[in-house]
Structures are given as C-alpha cells and as structure tokens.
3-deoxy-7-phosphoheptulonate synthase
Amino acid sequence: LVSREFKSTDTVIDIAGVPLGGKTVQIISGPCSVESQEQMDLSAKAVHEAGCRLMRGGAFKPRTSPYAFQGLGDIGLDYFKNAASKYNLPVVTELMDVRKIDLFLEKGVDVIQIGTRNMQNFDLLKEVGRLDVPVILKRGMSATIKDWLMAAEYIAAQGNQRIIFAERGIRTFETQYRNVLDVTAIPVLKKETHLPVIIDPSHAGGKAWLVPALSRAAVAVGADGLLIETHPCPSEAWCDADQALNPQQLKDLMQDLAGIAHIL
Ligand code: PEP
Ligand code: MN
C-alpha cells in the first residue's frame, strides 16, 4: 500500500489544513520535550514567528535511562495544545503506549509520532493504523529501508494511509556526532514510496551547529520536510539541549532554506 507500484503519484497529506508532501517543503519545529506552559508559549511564538506551520513537542519521552526525565505526561499535552492553538499550529507528539491513544484523541493531537525505538513495535503500529490521524514514522536507528517500509505497511494495512517517513540518523561506528544522517535514504525512499519523507537533522547530528548544514542537505536530496528541535533557551532545555536551536537560529535557518526550497 505504501509502494509506488500501488500509487504512482506523490501523496500530499493534509494536516489540519497544512499540506505535507508534493512540491513544497514543510518545517516542523518545537522543543524536544514539553516542560511548562511558559516554555511552550515561548516556543510556539518562536515557531510561528520563524514561519513554521507545524509544531513538535514530546509529553511522553523515550529516554535511555529510566532515571532521566520521562516527560510531563498528560498535563504536557494540555500545555502543548494551549500554546499551539494560539498560533493555529497543528501539533506533532510522540505516542509510546497504546493505552494513551484515547488521551491523544481526546486532546486533539494532530500528528502521532512513532519514535525510532518503536518503529517495529507492531502492536503499536497496528493500533495507530486504525486511527484517522496522520502518523510520522521515524526510522529505527538500526533499521534497513525494507524494515522501515514494512513497518509503515503494518500501519497502512489497518486502513490509515496518512504516513510520513522521518529519517533521523542511523547508528554506525562513528562517535563524533550522535547518528549518521542517511541522505541516500531520501531518494531511495522517494523512489519506493508515494508517501512524504522528512528529515530530522536535530537527532541525526545531535549538535545545534550541525542543523543548518544537514537541513540544506535534506532539502537538496528532495526531503518533503524537516523536523527541527528548538527551545526558547537551549542551554536550559531538560532534554537534548545540545541540539536545540534558539529562536533566532530557527529564524535564520528558515530564511536560508527559503532561498533553496519552496517553503509553504
Ligand atoms: C524525538 O523526536 O524527540 C525523539 C525522541 O526522536 P527519536 O525517536 O528519533 O530518537
Ligand atoms: Mn529530542
């Protein structure tokens, strides 16, 4: 269902009135995690003022250590929706547990993100496949393109075909940066699937200074969008502080990208 053989033309996914896919590039930005109402208000303002039309932010965080901040949980979704709705920004947030699906629907989450660690959580994939909500499916950090396409097929086979692939870097022997952004995956995936493909340069590079270069690379290889972490004050971020852009850096990046891509 996700294959080009099934459908030859590019699919454009409508996210509460914002198109993703086709001839334009859509930038999704916001903090790694929801921390407070004030932090989300400042983030939403920055995302809006930079010209982005979609916002990200995690209320449920898949952390390596069980002792690290796990996200604010349910109340985090309220802070996020409150802030984003002031600027009409649809929200993207990660779902880790099928038991939170009703909450996500009740709160009006616009796009469900499946993180790298859950790419092959097949029960979770099947459940989001039954929903009428777009899904961002991140690539497993050690997943092949075939694994990734098949994971998407699990969602699509249940009826939900509004799937967006997100390349966020893969694990290799390199230790100098967080992950290796697989730029080759973009044209390969665009050939294999009719669905939109976006890049997350923040989790790929793991450093704010790498984000502009990786973003330009993403656009150059044909990505349909970018998922970028921003924070009103990156040094104070509770999660992924090193890779967050500040509001001015996000604005500068958006202007830079406008020169090389059609940002809608
Ligand atoms: C995130 O987007 O904050 C995240 C945890 O990403 P990933 O699943 O790619 O590590
Ligand atoms: Mn993060």
Q: What stands out?
A: The chain has a mean pLDDT of 97.
